[in-house]
Amino acid sequence: MSDQTAPVSLEEFNHRLAEISETMPKRLRQCAEFVAQNTDRIAVSTVAELSVGAGVQPSAFMRFCQLMGFSGFSEMQKMFRETYAQKWPDYATRLENLRATGDDSPSALLAEFVEAGRLSLENLASTVDLETLEKAVDVLAEAPMIHVVGFRRAFPVASYLSYAFEKMNIAAVLHDGVGNLNPRHAIREGDVVIAITFAPYSQETIDLAAYAHDLGNKVVAISDSLSGPMRKTEALMLSVSEVDVGAFRALSATISLAIALAVSVGAKREKLIDGK
Fold first, then answer.
1. 81 and 172 share a domain?
2. Residue 28, domain CATH
3. How many whole angstroms separate alpha carbon 134 and alpha carbon 144?
4. Could you tell me if residue 2 is inside a domain?
5. Vertex 252, ends 251 and 253: CA angle to 5°?
6. Are residues 80 and 134 in the same domain?
7. DSSP at 56
8. Would the pTM count as exceeding 0.85?
9. pLDDT digits 0-9 by tens, 183-209
10. Shortest CA distance to 261 belongs to which of 146, 92, 152?
11. At what angle are helices 10-20 and 73-87 packed, to 10 degrees?
């Protein structure tokens, strides 16, 4: 067993995973990659099910848990269950919690979401990596085609980016899964993928980003963790977090980042065209 103290939060877990995953033996690295992409499954799956998903024996998965500082799988699963139960209960529970605190009136909720949005925007302004943002704008401005993908909570951001690019006459494809169609084969040499996903992360988004990376295309990722599953695509990572209200998360900071990214790409493309 590792002599490290077991992580007590998902943030600590992700930080440690990012630190040591590249030095792990092959089988344990498979476990690390699978866990990073499927954090939502750890709390509700057995070690046998997770081992099959990772393509390893249960004993290897147990060694992975110990390397991360846990006594075994049960202790690691307990941390995941406590983390998700506290942070992201189901919607019925979130509403019940709001009613219990007396904060479910429209005026109170509006004030809470406005304040959460303000705090999220202030945090974005002080934490965004401006150098990475500049690099993202540069690669997107030079792309023949921009492919945008984001599902569930990330879908409004993806659809807005596609809309903004269309209005600026920038070639873009929204990968939305309508009709269960998968236009990944439309990705050509030089194209860039914008992948938007947040915990517990959308497998469809991760798969498309990984597919593009394997082709040699660049990926720009908008996510809530620098140590999440998008890191293995060598993406230009733009991290953004949202302050929640009763575990409901708005998209104030994320949409602002998306607007800034789209407008910057449009302005950069105009400069490139004028310079030719």
1. no
2. 1.10.10.10
3. 18
4. no
5. 100
6. no
7. S
8. no
9. 788 889 999 999 998 877 788 888 899
10. 146
11. 130
